[in-house]
Amino acid sequence: MTSVIPPGSTIGVLGGGQLGRMLTTTARKMGYQVHTFSPEKDTPTGQVANLAVSASYEDLDALRGFASQVQVVTLEFENIPIKAIDAVESLAPVRPSGTALQIAQQRTREKNFLANHGFPTVPFASAVTLDELQKAVKSIGTPVVIKTAEFGYDGKGQHQVSTLADVENIWNAIGHREVLVEKFVSLQSEVSVIAARGLDGTIAEYMLFKNCHRNHILDVATAPADVDKSIAVRAVEIARGILDQLQYFGVLCVEYFITTGGDLLVNELAPRTHNSGHLTLEACATSQFEQQVRAICGLPLGSTELLQPAAMANLLGDLWVEGEPNWAAAELFPEVKLHLYGKKDPRRGRKMGHLTALGRTTEEAKQSVMSARKAVLS
Ligand SMILES: Nc1ncnc2c1ncn2[C@@H]1O[C@H](COP(=O)(O)OP(=O)(O)O)[C@@H](O)[C@H]1O
Ligand SMILES: [Mg+2]
Question: How many whole angstroms separate alpha carbon 24 and alpha carbon 249?
């Protein structure tokens, strides 16, 4: 028997970013209260939550106080220290669990987990010394990507290497930390499967989303993705296998590479809702945020049906170079929806908001978000 955490209960969210913000507005609409915990103040999540606790993830007393006031804890950010999860676990169920988080937050562990369970990945090797790194680059063969094993996101901590001579400089630039070396593969496209596993083990996945990156950061996501049926079927099969293997509760995103040779490889796991799924808010019967609430609260999972082709374009801090963009210009597009995350400091590469458009076709939706994003700069 799984016990339902009904509307009216309080959900605790570790992390204070935009994923937590959209989870919170959705959960509150469903009748839940939301408390958020983050080291920062005035966070995107905190601005819309019932309560925002601002304390360090090392402050275990503050974490225990936070957990004692909620019925379930989830996360919107994967780099939460495992000690913090351990501290709250005895007071409220944490979904997804610390085990899943531990795997997803360390690239070597993540790749080993995937490889050990037969899920396809790029060739990889880990290194903790310069000597090991040089050997790893040699054995995999350039070009490679060297990634810090921890705390990487949006391409941060990644270095592409085409010659062995550059390795030492990169090792120094990274600060002699554990790294993962991956073969740099030539990509036909990138896709993701966002899926949820409920407390009863039921799984529901969205159809594949296609993700276009710029400077290693997601730029535009579209649905449905124009990929071969056999690849789509295999991607869903893999995502389901991963959820079951992890005995996972909640929403998980599996990011995939499709190589120019037609191979489907798992790139990485995100143990939470995902940027490529923002379009589910407007385009699907159940958004990824509602699905997360349903999954962690023991409710039945909602329909993942895509109701209309859609596209999402990120609004990065780069758009602010000439000052605040002209948001009213985006509102001139009736099929475009503007989301801003309430962040005050528009740094380059920082995710400040996004635009979503529905269309009769994916291409039409994509053209709409691209035009609207261009218009805000006028
Ligand atoms: N081995 C690789 N081969 C080719 N492109 C890569 C490789 N690793 C990363 N990339 C590119 O960089 C992007 C970000 O890398 P990823 O490992 O997903 O890190 P992050 O955690 O920053 O999202 C990928 O979506 C892809 O476009
Ligand atoms: Mg990624």
Answer: 18
